[in-house]
Amino acid sequence: MVFLQVESLTKSFGDKLLFENISFGIDQGQRVALIARNGAGKTTLLNILLNNEPCDAGSVTYRRNLRIGYLPQNPVFTPDITVGKACFASDSEIVRAIARYEQLLAAPNDELQTALSEMDRLQAWDYEVRIKQILGKLDIHHLDKPVAQLSGGQQKRLALANTLISNPDLLILDEPTNHLDLQMVEWMESLLCQQNITLLMVTHDRYFLDRICTDIFEIDQQKLFHYKGNYAYYLEKRAQRIDSYNAEMARTQNLYRRELDWMRRMPQARATKAQSRIDAFQRIEERASQRMTDKQMSLSVKAAYLGSKIFEAQYVSKSFDDYKILDNFYYNFSRYEKLGIIGKNGTGKTTFLKLLTGEIPPDSGRFDIGDTVVFACYSQSGLAFDERMKVIDVVRDIAEEVDLGGGRKLSVSQFLNHFLFPPEKQHDYVANLCGGERRRLYLCTVLMRNPNFLILDEPTNDLDIATLNVLEDYLVNFKGCVIVVSHDRFFMDRVVDHLLVFEGDAIIKDFPGNYTDYRQWQELAEDVDRKQKTAIPTEKTSKSAERQKAPRTNSKIKLSFNEQREFDRLETEIETLENEKQHLETLLSSGTLENEQLLRQSQRFAEVMKLIDQKSARWFELDERNS
Question: I want to staple 452 with a disulfide (CB 3.0 to 4.6 A). Which of 62, 257, 304, 377 is the partner?
Answer without folding.
Answer: 304
